[in-house]
Automatic annotation (TrEMBL):
Main location: mitochondrion
Protein name as annotated: Iron-sulfur clusters transporter ATM1, mitochondrial
GO cellular component, one term: mitochondrial inner membrane
Domain ABC transporter: 364-600
Molecular function in Gene Ontology: ABC-type transporter activity; ATP binding; ATP hydrolysis activity
Keyword Zinc: no
Membrane topology summary: Multi-pass membrane protein
Classification of source organism: Eukaryota, Fungi, Dikarya, Ascomycota, Pezizomycotina
Oligomer status and interactors: Homodimer.
Record-linked PANTHER family: ATP-BINDING CASSETTE SUB-FAMILY B (PTHR24221), IRON-SULFUR CLUSTERS TRANSPORTER ABCB7, MITOCHONDRIAL (PTHR24221:SF402)
Region (Disordered): 48-75
Similarity comment text for this entry: Belongs to the ABC transporter superfamily. ABCB family. Heavy Metal importer (TC 3.A.1.210) subfamily.
ABC transmembrane type-1 domain: residues covered: 147-330
């Protein structure tokens, strides 16, 4: 998350033409994302703070609550990514102002007259509506003054009723402008003091409450992480009989969340109580002076009614001042996430004048390529390598020598740190990334699948593929017959990350998906490691026929040398450089690294075959 935060920030930008609508939509969005804690006060006028506790996906700066001690849970190290980032008020104001300036480009775009017209019209309508609303109390004043003579006898009753209604409207907002202009210094002083006191109290208390909300978000995120992690790795949990341990972890996370939520609710109650106190004090004083003016003849009953009506007229928009400020602070945080994402320096870039990859044959060349995931630990060292077009290439070698890294560099998941990689004479850093990746198909070691149907996962290679084309790819990948045995066939759900099917079935689905994409370059990274020998050989036979039929350039990364011995070229890597290169026969005869690996694997294969043969003989004797 950050996707929900960023979307909510964008939504707020577009809705700021009508602030009240924007904030109401924000609250609605938050309620739909996550259940929230409601804190009800005794006053019917107070807007409930439904967004007191939000999910960690909607927070960009969070601080974890202290873990609760549990007899079954060890004290966990606090994730530094969840640590609260403390900034000064001055720095926070600068950040908020920068976000507002960034947002202004979207709210008032230079070249979009339509948007600017709608924003201006919305502001004009809002101002017009406020002017009309403010005029209503004047009409009430005129009407009541015209009736004053007839009702003078019950003037005391009016004052009594007005005084009684003060406590029924404790949460009305500040009365400014007209009261100041119409009734002088006392009302001006009360209005100014109430405005300053209410605003200062709301801002300071909301800033103080932020740490509790962040702690609650962090605890909520921790609980969700523990739950999801345990469920995804449920097999590991059961293998080690650690169900109680995981339950204890989750209970501890929930306890942290509960404690943090109580602090959020308590601080919210304090905020509401303080606002109520400010309102009640100001309005009591205001209505007292108004009633006193009526009693002394300085004001009319209509003036008192006008004051009362203004209070109610302005109470609705001003009652939201505290909640709007809280929402604005949250929206600024969310938009900060959005704009920070836009400012992130992307490691993999393409030049402005990048052209699409133009394939003439499909040859690949590495020229003095150096790369390491860490600068102090290089993986490839001045690698020079040439892969002919339309050939089947195998890359073998010990673990950590850079086999899978070569595929990642070709796909531009990373950029080389030295040298260059050419495809048909074009530096892959100078071509459009989309065209490069469109020309490459990969079957990775780990085969992730979407929690959807088999058909959906297969068609991910070609979203427009017909059912007949999907079945043809499944048949070539030796998985069609297995799919037909499922009750729902191609409509069968595979589960989270494909956990409802076996590892071998997942690999065959991934290969079928690649064949459906049918790219010019095919990369297989241990693509058949989960298959039995018989199925593996049959599948590789189909793949080889496709490669020869369509003259595709393919690269196989493998540890089991029996899966790649028929390759046109076998490249042996060791310590980040090419140790040997050639055909299977040539490398075996050379007596080098490949020959040693082949001999070791063949001995293991022979031993396994002998064990299988002896086991079969024993079973035959028992049957006899």
């Amino acid at each position: 998350m950050p996707a929900a935060c960023a979307l909510r920030g964008i939504y707020t930008c577009h809705k700021l033409a009508h602030p009240s609508l924007a904030f109401s939509r924000i609250s609605t969005c938050q309620k739909s994302i996550r259940p929230t804690v409601r804190v009800f006060t005794t006053s019917p006028w107070r807007q409930k703070d439904d967004t007191a506790v939000k999910t960690a996906q909607q927070e960009t700066k969070v601080s974890p609550a202290e873990p609760t001690k549990s007899p079954t849970v060890k004290k966990e190290r606090v994730d530094p990514l969840l640590a609260e980032q403390t900034v000064s008020n001055k720095e926070q104001r600068k950040a908020d102002w920068a976000i507002i300036k960034d947002m202004a480009h979207y709210l008032w775009p230079k070249d979009d007259f339509g948007t600017r017209f709608r924003v201006g019209l919305s502001v004009a309508l809002l101002v017009g509506a406020k002017v009309l609303n403010v005029q209503v109390p004047f009409y009430f004043k005129s009407i009541v003054d015209s009736m004053n003579i007839d009702f003078a006898a019950v003037g005391g009753t009016v004052v009594t009723v007005a005084g009684a209604t003060i406590f029924a409207s404790l949460e009305i907002s500040l009365v400014c402008g007209i009261l100041t202009w119409q009734y002088g210094f006392k009302f001006a002083l009360i209005t100014a003091a109430t405005m300053v006191g209410y605003s200062a109290f709301t801002i300071l208390t909301t800033s103080w409450r932020t740490k509790f909300r962040k702690a609650a978000n962090a605890a909520d995120n921790k609980g969700a992480t523990v739950a999801v992690d345990s469920l995804i790795n449920y097999e590991t949990v059961k293998y080690f009989n650690n169900e109680r341990y995981e339950v204890g972890r989750y209970d501890a996370a929930l306890k942290n969340y509960q404690d943090a939520s109580i602090k959020v609710a308590t601080s919210l109650a304090f905020l509401n109580s303080g606002q109520n106190l400010i309102f009640s004090s100001a309005l009591t004083a205001m209505m007292y002076y108004g009633a006193d003016g009526v009693a002394t003849g300085q004001l009319t009953v209509g003036d008192l009614v006008m004051i009362n009506q203004l209070v109610f007229q302005l109470s609705v928009p001003l009652n939201f001042l505290g909640s709007v400020y809280r929402e604005l602070r949250q929206s600024l945080l969310d938009m900060e996430t959005l704009f920070n994402l836009q400012k992130v320096n992307v490691a993999i870039k393409e030049p402005e004048n990048a052209k699409p990859l133009m394939l003439t044959g499909g040859g690949i060349k590495f020229e003095n390529v150096s790369f390491g995931y860490r600068l102090d630990r290089p993986i490839l060292r001045n690698l020079n390598l040439e892969i002919p077009a339309g050939k089947k290439i195998a890359i073998v070698g010990p673990s950590g020598c850079g086999k899978s890294t070569i595929l990642r560099l070709l796909f531009r998941s990373y950029d080389v740190q030295g040298g260059r990689i050419l495809i048909d004479g074009q530096d892959i850093r100078d071509v459009q990334i989309e065209s490069l990746r469109k020309a490459i198909g990969v079957v990775p070691q780990d085969t992730p699948l979407f929690n959807d149907t088999i058909e959906h996962n297969l068609k991910y290679g070609d979203l427009e593929a017909s059912p007949e084309k999907v079945e043809a790819a499944a048949k070539r990948a030796k998985v069609h017959d297995i799919i037909q045995k499922f009750p729902d066939k191609y409509a069968t759900m595979v589960g989270e990350r494909g956990m409802m099917i076996s590892g071998g079935e997942k690999q065959r689905l991934a290969i079928a998906r690649l064949l459906l994409k049918d790219p010019p370059f095919l990369f297989f990274d241990e693509a058949t490691s989960a298959l039995d020998t018989h199925t593996e050989q049959a599948l590789l036979g189909n793949i080889n026929s496709i490669l020869k039929e369509k003259a595709r350039t393919s690269i196989f990364v493998a540890h089991r040398l029996r899966t790649i011995y028929d390759s046109d070229i076998i490249i042996v890597l060791k310590d980040g450089v090419v140790a040997e290169m050639g055909t299977h026969e040539r490398l075996v005869d050379s007596g080098g690294v490949y020959s040693e690996l082949w001999s070791a694997q063949e001995m293991l294969f022979i031993d396994e075959e002998q064990e299988k043969s002896e086991e079969k003989k024993k079973q035959d004797r028992k049957r006899a």
